[in-house]
Design goal:
Immunoglobulin-like; 2 domains; five-stranded mixed sheet; about 10% helix; globular; about 290 residues; mainly beta; 4 helices; 16 strands
Length: about 290
């Protein structure tokens, strides 16, 4: 590679949820990539929207050719929900409650509550916890009924298969698109466009507690998240919390066992009440 030039990297933001204010929220940005301080900068023209060739992920295939996961053992529907509170501050939810951290991290709860770890009752409602059975094929249907704001769903713990997209509301002109091949595209982040849903699939073969959230930090910190509690019975046989982590918690005064409140069973005494957000109904079918 030649060091004759430094280069200008062009960046275009496609974000329709931020009000455009001249000079404050520009869509086009340039940053220098410097290989040599005294070299001239080589620039390239910005690409206009009409020059962009958009690709539909439902018609792409991954290089490793992972086969479509089927049959589906568990189908889960979660809707994006929103609530404007005092001072115009928004809260969001993937489920009935805005996500909020709890005294005992859900991983600690999953590892210390025995057979009860398989019950949602030991996880506080604000975790929006979903229990997954080991090696089950799980289909998540993520729905964004909002007509204004786009969200981006990000998964920890899995690269999911993208199998379907379509309209949330009936009588919509938005078409339903289904993957019809053998090796669907895999992602760890996908756009939830306004008024649309996406269906993705994973295999619950990675025991752990996996945070699922909107990748826009404002929405993430406002509660748009849920938790996959994946194979807690297998976790208890195979995972251990490092002793130094337990010591950190002891020094900070945080409990390290029991349910989300550090208590037995479903007793959540002492936890801040969750913020309930109403919207379209969610569902879980299968086991």
């Amino acid at each position: 590679e030649s060091l004759e030039f430094n280069y200008a990297l062009n960046v275009t933001f496609y974000s329709n949820f931020i009000a455009r204010m001249q000079g404050l929220t520009p869509r086009y940005h340039q940053v220098p990539i410097v290989y040599r301080d005294d070299a001239p900068i080589k620039t390239f023209p910005m690409i206009e929207d009409h020059e962009v060739k958009w690709v539909d992920e439902l018609f792409m295939e991954p290089r490793d050719k992972q086969i479509l996961l089927e049959p589906v053992d568990q189908h889960i529907v979660r809707n994006v929900k929103a609530l404007t509170r005092e001072l115009g501050i928004p809260s969001y939810a993937f489920g009935d409650y805005a996500y909020d951290p709890v005294p005992v991290p859900p991983l600690f709860t999953a590892l210390t509550t025995g057979d009860m770890a398989l019950s949602p009752s030991v996880y506080a409602p604000q975790l929006n916890a979903i229990i997954l059975q080991h090696n089950h094929v799980v289909e998540l249907e993520l729905r964004n009924p909002d007509s204004l704001i786009v969200h981006t769903y990000h998964s920890h713990g899995h690269a999911f298969q993208v199998v379907e997209s379509g309209p949330v509301h009936k009588n919509s002109s938005i078409p339903v698109k289904r993957f019809k091949g053998r090796q669907p595209m895999r992602r760890d982040t996908i756009t939830l466009a306004t008024g649309r849903y996406v269906r993705v699939r994973i295999k619950a073969d990675n025991p752990g507690v996996w945070y699922q959230h909107c990748h826009q930090e404002q929405h993430n910190f406002s509660g748009l998240a849920f938790t996959l509690i994946e194979a807690p019975d297998v976790m208890q046989r195979t995972l251990r919390i490092p002793q130094e982590m337990l010591e950190f918690c002891r020094v900070l005064g945080h409990p390290t066992q029991g349910n989300s409140a550090g208590r037995a069973g479903s007793d959540m005494t002492g936890i801040k009440p969750p913020l309930k957000i109403h919207g379209l109904p969610d569902s879980t079918s299968g086991s």
